[in-house]
Amino acid sequence: MEVLISRYHPDKDDEPYMQTFEVDGSQLHSDAMLLELILHLREIDPTLGVRYSCQEGVCGSDALNVNGKNLLSCTTPLKSLKEPIEIRPLPGFPIIKDLIVDLELFYQQYKSVEPFLQSEPLDPQQEHLQTPKQREQLDGKYECILCACCSASCPSFWWNPDLFAGPAALLAAQRFTIDSRDITTIDRLHKLDSPTKTFRCRHIQNCTASCPKGLNPSQAIQSLKNRIVKGH
Amino acid sequence: MSESLLEYDFDVIIIGAGGAGLRAALLLTEQGHKVAVVSKVFPTRSHTVAAQGGINAALANVTPDKWEWHMYDTIKGSDYLGDQDAIEFMCSEAAEIVRELEHFGVPFSRLNNGKIYQRAFGGQSQNYGESQAHRTCAAADRTGHAILHSLYQQNLRSGTHFFDEHYAIDLLKSGEQVCGAVVMNLHDSQLKRLNAKHTLLATGGAGQVFRTNTNAAINSGDGLGMVARAGFTLQDMEFWQFHPTGVAGKGMLISEAVRGEGGILRNSNGEAFMERYAPRVKDLASRDVVARAISIEVTEGRGCGPNKDYVLLDISHLDGDLVRQRLPGIRDISMTFLGKDPIEEPIPVFPTCHYMMGGIPTNLQAQVVTPDHNSEQAVVDGLYAIGECACVSVHGANRLGGNSLLDIVVFGRKAAQSIDAELKANTRRKISEADNLEVILARFHRWQLAQTTDDSIARIKKDLQTVMEQGCGVFRDLDSMQTALDKLLPIEERLMEVGLNDHSDVFNLDRLAALELENLLIVAFATVQSALARQESRGAHSRVDFPERDDSDWLKHTLYSHRLRRLSYKKVNLTPQHHAPFEPKKRVY
């Protein structure tokens, strides 16, 4: 099979270029994921730079842009990809080397929404009670693995990664505004009421389409905006 | 490559940003100490994220419970090799630890009365071995993810300083005291010398030493390698947990929660075979028992599939909505990697290397201990270890499901409390001047100079993993282990000879893999040597040639010195501080 991989080394390349590999598919398992192919290529060329770790879609290390779509290489069946397979780093971030990008701005935006529970202090002999229904509100919000597939597919984030919080951060923001244990909802909504930080989202919905965990940041941002407008 | 080392001073450095490291960091930062966390990956990529089923605590939200019952189950589960004082401490802290996690924001699943949901798990009982307990607190089947992210989030609140994507190379020493570590920024290979009054290792497991495993690629035993090179011992390295239900042929974890919620293991005859091995608790026997049962079924020809090399985990009788709600992650893994919806079709499973019960020996304060002339438990000044890399020992010869998340948080907090108390009591403690910097740099520079060869790091690692799987799997005997040991020596020579293909300083993964492989090789030697010597079967160490447990000769911990390539032993603690001791008994489920 024919595989094209974006290569870039800051010491010798002015800009990224595509390198073509011819791979003997019989060297791989018939039900291989894309990561198996990439690790096979790394054995041929150990200088190939790529992040990966858990190999089962929970650590969020191996987000890539493949045939134009952002995805996790460890949960994408090779068979599902059309040849030639074109593998690029996540778009919109500075490239450190080959497929490894600098996610600092992505992490900064996550931190900027205060993604931590602020609850009524309680002595350690007690639990905050939460009904199954209240807890259900968090489903689809807390499972984010910070892989950045969503923010790296968002035109608003590409243009203003320093100003627009981006879908991953806003999904986290929404999660804490609806957690029944959090007591800072009004304050959170107030801080998120910004034309750039939140309202720069144009609901293109690339985020939802690209989320490898099947989450829906677009809907979460819509709900967040509605509540900011209504003030609660 | 910059020859000049950047230099920083801290009160505490924590190496590893999984649940253990992050729990410790949170307390120490909140107490105002100057703390740095070093992690070779961004913190939420740490392997705690993959833990599924839950965390044990006797909250009694579902069934009556007492921490003393949890203590009994853990000691029995450990096949009496766990230290009873440490197990007592862990179980008595558990309820508060879990409530504290809830306060930090962990989105636990809930019961109708609003309290934390608890499920049944293997090896857990009410009233010292009577009926099944529901003790495992769960956030669906993503409990590790929920805990790791919540702890990271709280560290963002407290302002902990992180060195992300920095790799710890070795411990700095001044005489026999530890005074920090040399670390490398993976982005540019810049070396940094982190001087510290206290150094806390939280580097996790080393499951990459076996070919089929549930572990992340990063689980390479870095803390164990550093400790061994610093001249200290490793404990109980013959005890590796093979999780009964890894995805057959691939290794991904299928949580014990599947059986806790009612899943049943079946062989090629459709028989629920665990009834024969553990008549009372069946599929919820301890992990070592279930892993052996599956291996025997397959060996005796009752495996499933075209090669008869796995068994089936069946949940087709459970309500589909319950599966979607309680086991969404497992359903996802099964559909992604096998194309099977477990609501409709059973999951093919086989035992896979999951967890290292052994590790860096520590005391109840999480201080690293090592034998010296006067004591088998001499404290290493300035060095602490917690979580999977440590061996305190709360898991003994076999860990119970739901006890590893508990271990990391209990001892994460305890280590931080010990260090906090020490820093406050001893305000004049200075950072010592290291005297081993040259040795550390020489090892590192060898890899920079190593010219390309025909052999490669990737090939040596694969061979190492195969040797370990063949020699030290679920069942072992003298022949299999001696063969493994004989094959490790040439692998060690190859690692001395091999060169690298990448000589750049930007994200040099080839050099990183070489440094990790040096650690894995130490783990492999420790495992085989410790296992060869132990002439009995206990917990996860099952010898075909010595099938019985032998308390008169082997109720003791193994200590392995890599520097001397020599074993020694130390006593198991059988005297808890509050509860009456549990005398070793035959272990029946």
Automatic annotation (TrEMBL), chain A:
Q: Which residues form the 4Fe-4S ferredoxin-type domain?
A: 134-164
The kind of enzyme this is, by top-level EC class, is oxidoreductase
UniProt name for this protein: succinate dehydrogenase
Q: What is its EC number?
A: 1.3.5.1
Q: Where are the transmembrane segments?
A: none
Q: What is the lineage of its organism?
A: Bacteria, Pseudomonadati, Pseudomonadota, Gammaproteobacteria, Thiotrichales
Which PANTHER family does the record associate with it?
A: SUCCINATE DEHYDROGENASE [UBIQUINONE] IRON-SULFUR SUBUNIT, MITOCHONDRIAL (PTHR11921:SF29), SUCCINATE DEHYDROGENASE IRON-SULFUR PROTEIN (PTHR11921)
- What are the entry keywords? 2Fe-2S, 3Fe-4S, 4Fe-4S, Iron, Iron-sulfur, Metal-binding, Oxidoreductase, Tricarboxylic acid cycle
Highest taxon of source: Bacteria
Q: Which cofactor does it need?
A: [4Fe-4S] cluster; [2Fe-2S] cluster; [3Fe-4S] cluster
User: What family is it from?
Assistant: Belongs to the succinate dehydrogenase/fumarate reductase iron-sulfur protein family.
Looking up Pfam families in the UniProt record yields: Fer2_3, Fer4_17
Alphabetized InterPro entries for the sequence: 2Fe-2S_ferredoxin-like_sf (IPR036010), 4Fe4S_Fe-S-bd (IPR017896), 4Fe4S_Fe_S_CS (IPR017900), Beta-grasp_dom_sf (IPR012675), Helical_ferredxn (IPR009051), SDH/FRD_Iron-Sulfur (IPR050573), Succ_DH/fum_Rdtase_Fe-S (IPR004489), Succ_DH/fum_Rdtase_N (IPR025192)
Automatic annotation (TrEMBL), chain B:
Q: Where does it live in the cell?
A: Cell inner membrane
* Domain FAD-dependent oxidoreductase 2 FAD-binding: residue ranges: 11-405
Pfam families attached here? Answer: FAD_binding_2, Succ_DH_flav_C
Instruction: Give the E.C. number(s).
Output: 1.3.5.1
User: PROSITE patterns of this UniProt entry?
Assistant: FRD_SDH_FAD_BINDING
List keywords of the entry alphabetically. Cell inner membrane, Cell membrane, Electron transport, FAD, Flavoprotein, Membrane, Oxidoreductase, Transport, Tricarboxylic acid cycle
Q: Does the keyword Membrane apply?
A: yes
Fumarate reductase/succinate dehydrogenase flavoprotein-like C-terminal domain segment(s):
462-589
* Gene3D superfamilies in the cross-refs: FAD/NAD(P)-binding domain, Fumarate reductase/succinate dehydrogenase flavoprotein-like, C-terminal domain, succinate dehydrogenase protein domain, Succinate dehydrogenase/fumarate reductase flavoprotein, catalytic domain
What PANTHER family does the annotation carry?
Answer: SUCCINATE DEHYDROGENASE 2 FLAVOPROTEIN SUBUNIT, SUCCINATE DEHYDROGENASE [UBIQUINONE] FLAVOPROTEIN SUBUNIT, MITOCHONDRIAL
Q: Which NCBIfam families match?
A: sdhA_forward (TIGR01816), sdhA_frdA_Gneg (TIGR01812)
The similarity comment for this entry is: Belongs to the FAD-dependent oxidoreductase 2 family. FRD/SDH subfamily.
Q: What is the protein name for this chain?
A: Succinate dehydrogenase flavoprotein subunit
The top of its lineage is:
Bacteria, Pseudomonadati, Pseudomonadota, Gammaproteobacteria, Thiotrichales
The gene is sdhA
